[in-house]
Design brief:
Chain B: InterPro entries: ER_ret_rcpt. Chain B: This is ER lumen protein-retaining receptor. Chain B: It is a multi-pass membrane protein. Chain B: GO terms for molecular function: ER retention sequence binding. The structure holds 2 protein chains of 2 kinds. By secondary structure, chain A is low in regular secondary structure. Helices cover 0% and strands 0% of the residues of chain A. Chain B is mostly helical. Chain B is built from 8 helices and 2 strands; from the N terminus they run ααααααβααβ. Chain B has a two-stranded antiparallel sheet with strand order 1-2. The longest helix of chain B has 28 residues. Chain B starts with a helix and ends with a strand. Classes of the chains: A little secondary structure, B mainly alpha. Chains A and B meet through loops of A and α1 and α3 of B.
């Protein structure tokens, strides 16, 4: 996974 | 988005709404830990700061706003509007024992040493233990109103469903976030004892009371 991923989870 | 994630979010929303409605309808927050609710407000505040930096979807943004608004509304009802009914004498868990270690850990173990990422990590760690003041309060008084147990059930179910969601995402999307998963496992484990009581007592129509 990418480190600075977009956080799509709540 | 998979079905476990969606039902997890909805379960979380149900828990939040149940608690708000319970307090509003009975005009009382008896049996509710204001400290846990303060911690959840802190969790949402520190986690959803990305509302200002990135847009993911309308669903994502609206759910975040609803969670934050509801958690602040709950804190307002407990500490302001229905303060007279707040059972502070039984809400004696020392939150600094949670916030300080969790704060330290989020500085030490995170994905990236940047302010937003550390705050996000802090919120993930804090959420996993934020229910402890509430569980402590129930163990102290030895009982909980049935509506409060429904709240706790949906709150625990939410993280359990997220665990299945993460297994799903690992297999089908290659997605894996160790920090979220470990904290999620801890959080779910904290509810296991309660789940047992909920199934064996509350679902059979009995009030949740603990042996003296």
């Amino acid at each position: 996974y990418t480190l600075l991923r977009e956080k799509d989870e709540l | 988005m998979n079905i476990f994630r969606l039902t997890g979010d909805l379960s979380h929303l149900a828990a939040i709404i149940i608690l708000l409605l319970k307090i509003w309808k009975t005009r009382s927050c008896a049996g509710i830990s204001g400290k846990s609710q303060l911690l959840f407000a802190l969790v949402f505040t520190t986690r959803y700061l990305d509302l200002f930096t990135s847009f993911i979807s309308l669903y994502n943004t609206s759910m975040k706003l609803i969670y934050v608004a509801c958690s602040y509304a709950t804190v307002y009802l407990i500490y302001m509007k229905f303060k007279a009914t707040y059972d502070g004498n039984h809400d004696t868990f020392r939150v600094e024992f949670l916030v300080v270690p969790v704060g330290g850990l989020s500085f030490l173990v995170n994905h990236d040493f940047s302010p937003l990422e550390i705050l996000w990590t802090f919120s993930i760690y804090l959420e996993s233990v934020a229910i402890l003041p509430q569980l402590f309060m129930i163990s102290k008084t030895g009982e909980a109103e049935t509506i409060t147990t429904h709240y706790l059930f949906f709150l625990g179910l939410y993280r359990a469903l997220y665990l299945i969601n993460w297994i799903w995402r690992y297999y089908f999307e290659g997605f894996f976030d160790l920090i979220a998963v470990v904290a999620g496992v801890v959080q779910t484990i904290l509810y296991c004892d309660f789940f047992y009581l909920y199934v064996t007592k509350v679902l059979k129509g009995k009030k949740l009371s603990l042996p003296a």
